[in-house]
């Protein structure tokens, strides 16, 4: 029996994008349920790679972001020890990529997706905690804590790294693990400091006590996103939170201790002016997990959360578009058969991304001076060696895959 109705758990980026794709390109009726009481607003600025922008264009969302964010043609990677450039992540090949990259606020991306859903007549139901599911030969039923039930042909778990769908129904023993690394991020107006900040649009400084990302989030380049990633003991929470009161000042002092140096004199002007710092512990999943069971499948971070490497949103959108294409071209096949085919096409690319992200994060924790010198040389060599491969990755598009099974 052809699939016509989808239950989507998670009203974030992956869930909203899934509903848009399945409504627009598959003519499904979609029901979205989010455990939070309202759209999530916490989060920094995300890097939308050329892949992500092509998929957002495919979903007819990109036009809502054209006046947002800061176009990024490359990310400079520099040594905190010397202040010198080590290499570059390059998005300039428009012939291959069609788009550069875009640094945009996470909430702005989510708003654009939710606005598109509203235009399609699809609502997100908030405050919905799923408690159980049951399956028959051709349907799946989800039940919620408030007593509500919903029936559909399949269920998508798009509820992030701490996914209830994964934890309750697909693979309870596969739990997120803390990386030992946390992200401290915030924003500031740099209108008066522009001449003191020697970056084009985005620069990542790699150092002895972590890494520091500086990136503009608006086209006039007056709004600066500051993201520091450093080794941190377990912070006692799996969710991000805005640091308050005296802890805010203590965190700024720690960032100054880690990142202020004669090689980057502007850091001492930037960090004290950050409007409000958020602390976000970084978790990851093992790369050998189960992604589907019966009529349920995990997408995005629920399936393959990894340390952030600037490409996570693109990978989640890629999941969505590929699954939508498979459901469109092979809707006469069994649900389990389509899910299996999806995993067959997806695993190798995701495994490669996880391996690269994990390698990068192991170099972030505090290290000695000699190791830092070695890492500067290694970073330069790795960026040069990976340049061609990264170009192919940014040009990769799941819409070019020939679907035949």
TrEMBL record:
Keywords: FAD, Flavoprotein, Monooxygenase, Oxidoreductase. GO terms for molecular function: FAD binding; monooxygenase activity. Residues 6-356 form the FAD-binding domain. Pfam families: FAD_binding_3. SUPFAM superfamilies: FAD/NAD(P)-binding domain. The keyword Ribonucleoprotein does not apply. Belongs to the paxM FAD-dependent monooxygenase family. This is FAD-binding domain-containing protein. It comes from Lophiotrema nucula.
């Amino acid at each position: 029996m052809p699939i016509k109705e989808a239950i989507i758990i998670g009203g974030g980026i992956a869930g909203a994008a899934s509903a848009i794709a399945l409504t627009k390109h598959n003519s499904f009726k979609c029901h979205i349920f989010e455990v939070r009481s309202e759209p999530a607003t916490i989060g920094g600025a995300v890097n939308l790679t050329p892949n992500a922008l092509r998929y957002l264009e495919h979903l007819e969302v990109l036009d809502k972001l054209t006046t947002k964010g800061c176009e990024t043609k490359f990310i400079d990677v520099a040594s905190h020890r010397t202040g010198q450039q080590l290499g570059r992540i390059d998005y300039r090949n428009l012939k291959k990529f069609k788009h550069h990259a875009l640094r945009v606020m996470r909430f702005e991306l989510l708003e654009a997706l939710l606005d598109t859903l509203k235009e399609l007549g699809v609502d997100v139901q908030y405050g919905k905690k799923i408690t159980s599911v049951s399956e028959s030969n051709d349907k799946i039923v989800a039940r919620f804590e408030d007593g509500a039930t919903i029936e559909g042909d399949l269920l998508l778990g798009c509820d992030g790294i701490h996914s209830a769908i994964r934890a309750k129904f697909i693979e309870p023993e596969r739990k997120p693990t803390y990386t030992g690394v946390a992200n401290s991020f915030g924003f500031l107006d740099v209108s008066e400091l522009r001449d003191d900040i020697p970056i084009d649009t985005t620069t990542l400084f790699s150092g002895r006590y972590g890494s520091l990302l500086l990136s503009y989030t608006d086209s006039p380049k007056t709004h600066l996103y500051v993201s520091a990633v450093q080794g941190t003991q377990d912070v006692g929470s799996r969710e991000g939170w805005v640091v308050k009161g005296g802890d805010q000042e203590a965190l700024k002092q720690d960032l100054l201790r880690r990142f202020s140096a004669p090689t980057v004199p502007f850091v001492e002007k930037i960090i004290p002016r950050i409007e409000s710092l958020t602390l976000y512990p970084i978790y990851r999943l093992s790369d050998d997990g189960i992604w589907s069971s019966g009529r349920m499948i995990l997408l995005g971070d629920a399936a393959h959360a990894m340390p952030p490497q600037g490409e996570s949103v693109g990978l989640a959108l890629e999941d969505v578009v590929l699954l939508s294409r498979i459901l469109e071209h092979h809707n006469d096949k069994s649900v389990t058969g389509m899910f299996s085919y999806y995993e067959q096409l997806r695993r190798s690319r995701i495994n490669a991304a996880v391996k690269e992200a994990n390698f990068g994060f192991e170099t972030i924790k505090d290290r000695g001076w000699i190791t830092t010198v070695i890492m500067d040389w290694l970073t330069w060599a790795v960026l040069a060696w990976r340049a061609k491969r990264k170009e192919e990755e940014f040009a990769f598009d799941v819409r070019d895959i020939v679907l035949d099974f």
